[in-house]
Amino acid sequence: MVLDSSIRGVTTEQRRSALRRLLQAKRCLRVIEAHSPISALLAERICFDGDGETVQYDAFWSSSLTDSTVRGMPDIEALDIRSRLPNIHEIFEVTTKPLIIDGDTGGQPEHFALNVAALERTGVSAVIVEDKTGLKKNSLLGTSAGQRQESITAFCHKLRMGKAAQVTADFMIFARIESLILTSGLGDAIERALAYIDAGADGIMIHSRQKKPDEVMEFAARLQAIHPGVPTVCVPTTYGQTYFSELETAGFNIVIYANHLLRAAYPAMQTVALNILKHGRTLESEEKCLPIDEILQLIPGTK
Hints:
Elements: H1 5-8, H2 12-25, E1 29-33, H3 37-45, E2 47-50, E3 53-56, E4 59-62, H4 64-69, H5 81-94, E5 99-102, H6 109-122, E6 126-130, E7 132-133, E8 148-149, H7 152-165, E9 172-177, H8 186-198, E10 203-206, H9 214-226, E11 232-234, H10 244-250, E12 254-257, H11 260-279, H12 292-298
Parallel strand pairs: 1-4, 1-12, 4-5, 5-6, 6-9, 9-10, 10-11, 11-12
Antiparallel strand pairs: 2-3, 7-8
Pfam families: PEP_mutase
GO molecular function: phosphoenolpyruvate mutase activity
Protein name: phosphoenolpyruvate mutase
């Protein structure tokens, strides 16, 4: 039997360095959330052929929100990075694409440095750490959850400690700026971005709760004018009407679809479970389920 690439896999070094290579080769990357090995397998294999071009996802996103949700835990950093590593190991067992992890606040600088070392050894390509302090709450809750931003000085110290913990030049630390989430304004976001880059951040993620992408696009334009070589990241969860091509044109280098696979799976499971109770049989739910034959073909080596 000839093993396909997902079984043969890639080395830790090949996977860890892949994101940097992709950023050099492509103007903008598509990244999608993967909360389990099966969702990562789907994301790795799915593609779309249109207008003479094959479009696919370039990397995975390990989301603290979805990792917590599948374990029935709140998204308050209760599930730390060390607890999430076994799931990443299992994803890496069956896939080949690079992975970016949501590092939440990073915790104490000393803890962040240890986690950077662990992630790098695992083969993760990048961590995105947000500049909030105190009990972490989901950013889409905005100011209603009493969230506070870390001082620029303290967050820069955390970034420097993380960078000092690296062994290779492959691993990247992206600074996630919450200024627009917490209504501190675009000026504050730019000030923080410049300081974080000076502190060693390899890239900047800008987050927003707005329904339109205007403020993140303005941020990208202003930052790219000053630091054109620094990767800029966005997460269009609330401005989902915006096309990838528009974000690419605006200057973004990575677009993360941060929670959609889990959000799609839950309503489907809920509907099927309810229909089985309602009808007393599974026939009415079969059309919403993957056929058994396809499941047997989905995982290499099953048949």
